[in-house]
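Today's session is about reading a structure prediction critically. Students often jump straight to the picture, but the first step is always the sequence itself: look for stretches that repeat, for charged clusters, for runs of hydrophobic residues. Only then move on to the predicted structure, which in these notes is written as discrete structure tokens rather than atom positions. Here is the chain we will use throughout the hour.
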Amino acid sequence: MGWGLNFLQDKIGPLEQTTASWDISYHLVLNRDAHVLAIGLKLSAQNFSFNQDILTFQDSGDSFFDVSNYGQFKPNIGFGFKYQRRDFFLSLSIPFMLDSSEFKTVRHYYFNTGAQVKFNELWTAQPNILLRQVQNSPTSFDFNFLVYYQDRFWLGPSWRGRFLYSPKIESYAPAIGIIGGLNINPNLSVGYNYSRLRGKFFSNGNTGTHEFYLKYAFKTKEENQEKEIGTENKVNTKVQRQ
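Below is the predicted structure for this chain, in token form.
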């Protein structure tokens, strides 16, 4: 079993949205070759509020803004699964299955797949692609190609865009970037991601986005023991070959 908690608060002007969710998953080992099927469930709740008291109207008689402050609470449910083996994975998820006309939200579908290509004992490549589908919108994608050195350092390009493109849509903005990271120890890692929008509409005034992250993984004693056993087996194998 696995579980996680998420909390998100987004505030833009008079609009404020708070989302809290609980994710739970069950991992089923299909065979001894590390084929695993994970099935997940997301239980969430959203609170949406509109506060027009902070707005100043040029035309006080505009009926479009003739609304009082209001707030709404809406529960939701999501579902997903992931199939994984040592060198390949694929997943499908629907984080919020219930549409909401009040929140102007629609159902999103996410499909993610990737592989691991081992060149030798030092270098490994991990290509992966994430597809997003929303009603009345073209399918978008995120593609990354990361190269790992000894599972300690990784670096690679990223590309984000849509499958549908029209020269008439000036706001079409594919993004290219680069991702890098470092495992300081088995529990602690740091990373950096830079991306920049490309397109006529975004040619001026866009200097790109910089993202930094810090990750710490709490591992059980069993996981640490398994890693120590795996490292010991690698050393013994090298000695035998020599």
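Discussion point for the tutorial: Residues 1-100 form one domain.
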